[in-house]
Amino acid sequence: MTMRAVVDERRIVSVTNLTREDGADFMEIAACDKLAIETTPYPLARANDALADRRSDRLTAADVLSMA
């Protein structure tokens, strides 16, 4: 999935160890579509599986819960 697929998701909810400049740099790169975002989708009914996979390091991408 490319950044274009999530172009409307340009909101950073929380940042722990980054400066404002780091965030601005990230958004500039994201706007240029230079990011390749990998996700592992899970239906909401499999949320426990997603947590188990995350805890056991079986995931190499961002896990995403879907309510649809």
Question: How would you describe the overall organization of this protein?
Answer:
By secondary structure, the chain is α+β, with helices and mostly antiparallel strands. The protein folds into two domains: 37 residues, no CATH class; 31 residues, no CATH class. The chain has a two-stranded parallel sheet with strand order 1-2. The two termini are 18 Å apart.
Break the fold down into its secondary structure elements and pairings:
Layout: H1 20-31, E1 39-43, H2 47-55, E2 62-66
Parallel strand pairs: 1-2
Our count of helices gives 2
In quaternary terms, these chains amount to: single chain
User: Tell me, what's the shape?
Assistant: elongated
Separation of termini? 18 Å
The arrangement of helices and strands along the chain is HEHE
**Into which percent range does the helicity of residues fall?**
25-40%
**What order do the strands of the largest sheet run in, or round the barrel if closed?**
1-2
Low-pLDDT stretches are none
Query: In what range is the share of β-strand residues?
Result: 5-15%
How many strands, what sense, and barrel or not for the largest sheet? 2 strands, parallel
Structural class: alpha+beta
